[in-house]
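Shape is hard to put into words, and the shape of a protein is harder than most. The fold becomes a row of whole numbers, each drawn from a learned catalogue of backbone shapes. The outcome of that step, for a single protein, is printed below.
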Amino acid sequence: MITVHSEKHKLRNSKTELFGGELVEPFERPSRVTYIMDRITAVDLGDVIAPDDFGMETILQIHDNDFVEFLQSAWNEWLAMGYNGEAMTTCWPARRMAMKCPNHIDGKLGYYAMASETSISEGTWEAAYASAQVALTGAKLVMEGARGIFALCRPPGHHAAYDMYGGYCFLNNAAIAAQSFLNNGAKRVAVLDVDFHHGNGTQDIFYTRDDVLFISLHGQPEDAFPHFLGYVDEVGEGAGKGFNINYPMASGTGFEEWRAALLDALVKVKDYQPDALVISLGVDTFENDPISFFKLVSDDFTTFGGDIAGANLPTLFVMEGGYDIAEIGLNTVNVLQGFEAANS
């Protein structure tokens, strides 16, 4: 399987994350990719290629133009205020406040952020843009006939909504890839999110559309980030009604229950008859992940990679979360090898 990868991910190297009342080293850090790449090399998964540059067109079909301009300028605006640290959100337009974007960078951060754990630092925009190009290149290869492609995106994307960033995400790589499939002849695309955390951004983007089926398996929002989306009764609106499906699951969920949800989701994917399948591939369902509460073990990732292959669809894997960094390479590549073995 070909892996698409950009070294520009290293430009996203924030030093601070707000967690448990402290500023800590971010869980989402460059070494995540190092471990994945080391495993890809160790098992000789396939060629690793750099992305092409497809520009901004598809990105701006998915994201609000003013939001994208904010991401491009935020770091320089922060520096212009004379601030020494990384750009972190301190206020939001909460209930009964005006939903108007301020001029001051502190206000802009709150207007566009969904959470405070994700700081903006030097190189964030450049890395996010490159990550989107990785996804677009992967989609192009699938459209050209590849059965499966791995887009090693970093920063991840599935928490990035139409006009919000957070959860380590700035541009929604999976949604951008799905739109690219549609732009290039696909009539319907399915996005299946197997990350531990709900893909709130992808849901937000496609909630009123019927040309993208979105399905997410995740920790129940009562107990897991992002908390405010991911319930069963969120089924889509307007033309999108019935095309948004959530499988929230409780703390301690093991592979048997999780896999039952996956297999049910794959039935729904096949019934939808999409022209392509995008997998938001997070491996933070692993039993030792530090910010999650499911109990999958490493061999389970191989098994469900094979399950995904059973959908018999051209498939793009888009990297999302996974924060047990010592095992992220093993677990990620296990999914891809399971998919490849089932297709051989």
Strands lie at 2-4, 17-19, 22-24, 48-49, 148-151, 189-193, 212-219, 244-249, 276-281, 315-319.
